[in-house]
Amino acid sequence: MTQLPLRPNVGACLFNRDGLVFIGRRADQPAGETNSGAWQMPQGGLDEGEDPETAVLRELSEEIGTRNAQVIGRMAEWLDYDLPAHLVGKALGGRFRGQTQLWFALRFLGQDSEIRLDADRHQEFDAWRWAPLAELPAIAVPFRRPIYERVARDFTRYAVPG
Q1: Where is this region: Disordered (predicted)?
Q2: Which fold has domain 6-157?
Q3: How far is CA 106 from CA 1, 29, 33, 54, 72, in A?
Q4: Can you spell out the DSSP letters for 20-44?
């Protein structure tokens, strides 16, 4: 495996009042794509010196247009994944072999009308929906599936109406 580092990253498992999770369809997928890997939770890079909790709220703002959420939990440890060999040197700006991620559980405090996928000049998602937590592993690209399995398992206690 390459000597490239892992990119520090935060992930947002955003629960609505019904205990469902926000997932967005990646804008770089073909329109109408429903296969696994086309949908994911918000996530993004951690800026140097940035607090992870600050970063996850920033990522929500950039990717879905709102910070109207409260952190209700977080993973006890960082979770790593490596990119498949054919993506190393291409994905993530070509500078990383994968990512090390700290996942947060958040409760969305707003209304669905606050979600704006076009809030940032680099639009990450072109569609979104609320999904059951148990659906997460099936929607993940294969190399991220173990991460989504872990998030689904560890954040089950937050997947309740609230």
Answers
A1: 30-50
A2: Nucleoside Triphosphate Pyrophosphohydrolase (3.90.79)
A3: 34, 26, 27, 13, 5
A4: -EEEEEETTSPTT--STTSEE--EE
pLDDT classification of 152: cutoffs 50, 70, 90:
very high
Calpha distance 116→127 (Å, rounded): 10
Report domain extents, the chain: 6-157
**Which amino acid is residue 145, in one-letter code?**
R
Decide: 6 and 100 in contact? Cβ < 8 Å: yes
CB 80 within 8 A of CB 27: no
Q: Cα–Cα–Cα angle for 80, 29, 101, nearest 5°? A: 15
pLDDT at 2: 58
Q: Are 52 and 10 in contact (CB under 8 A)?
A: yes
C-alpha to C-alpha distance for 45 and 82, rounded to whole angstroms: 15
